[in-house]
Amino acid sequence: MQVTTHTCDCEELARRAREEEARLYRELDKIIEKHKEVRGPLIQTLHAAQELFGYLPEKAQVRIAKGLGIPLSEVHGVLSFYSFFNTVPRGKHTIRVCMGTACYVRGGKQVLEKFQQELGIGLNDTTEDGLFSLEINRCVGACGLAPVVTIGPDIYRRVKVDKVPQIIARYKNGNSSAQSSSRRSSRQALTDENSPASAGSDTSEHKSGGSQQ
User: Fold this and answer.
1) Residue 31 belongs to what H/E stretch?
2) What is the pLDDT of residue 9?
3) Contact 152, 141 (CB under 8 A)
4) In this predicted structure, what is the pLDDT of residue 197?
5) 117 and 198 within one domain
6) Which of 36, 141, 179, 186 is the least buried, fewest Cβ under 10 Å from its Cβ?
7) How crowded is the C-beta side of 149, counted as CA atoms within 13 Å?
8) 126 in the same domain as 28
9) pLDDT for residue 193
């Protein structure tokens, strides 16, 4: 009886990982050098670094502080103040449920709880497969479309709890909602509650009828 064994070339994988990390930090050094002479360079540098890494690891934070000649505490202060910076890896798709007044009153809390239930994660957590992260927004400025959920550039409006599994399935299947909505006009996409609209769509008509938060 012939036995076939499969071995993992762990050394090769580790070598590639080290090379990729080194490449990323070389790119980060270029970013720091580019922004260090700019007025107020920290936020611009952090944005560029997050785009490079996908988040802002501690090692990158230290590198940025040293490169810009500022205290690490200043970097930490900016990261803690601005919610759009992430210090831990995020999922491929970040789901944000609006919890502004209008969205909360119209069922945003129940929608959020359904996402937590379906994904099996808590708020600000990421699924084990790295596909989804779950966050909240305080207001997206579309009160007339409440409750609103955004996933990347896609906007879902008047979301019902029973639609949450369907929304998740679109991304699990690799068919992002942006692809399906690209064939619709922005007006049609915004009035069809079962399809998302692009973040660039004009929602002013709908906003005007909404409450102000």
Assistant:
1) helix 10-35
2) 78
3) no
4) 57
5) yes
6) 179
7) 31
8) no
9) 55
Task: Identify residue 49 by its one-letter amino acid code.
Answer: A
| 46 and 140 part of one domain | no
Q: What is the rounded average pLDDT for all residues in the chain? A: 81
6 pLDDT above the threshold of 80: no
pLDDT value at residue 102: 94
CA torsion 24→26→32→35, rounded to 10°? -90
Q: Let me know whether 17 and 70 are in one domain.
A: yes
- Specify whether 200 is located in the same domain as 112: yes
- Number of CB atoms found within 10 A of residue 88's CB: 11
Question: What's the confidence (pLDDT) of residue 212?
Answer: 39
For the record, the structure tokens of 26 come out as 């070389």
Residue identified by tokens 């409750």 is: 147
Residues shown for the chain: 213
For residue 184, pLDDT over 60 is answered with no
The encoded tokens of residue 123 equal 């708020």
CA distances from 9 to 117, 120, 178 (A): 38, 33, 38
Q: 2 lies in a domain?
A: no
Whether 212 is covered by a domain: the verdict is: no
Question: Does residue 68 carry a pLDDT above 60?
Answer: yes
Name the 3-class secondary structure at 18.
helix
Task: Establish if 109 belongs to a structural domain.
Answer: yes
- Domain span holding position 26: 11-81
How confident is the model over 149-164, as a mean pLDDT? 94
Position 47 in a domain? yes
Rg (CA), the chain: 21
H or E, element range at 81: helix 72-81
Global pTM reads 0.58
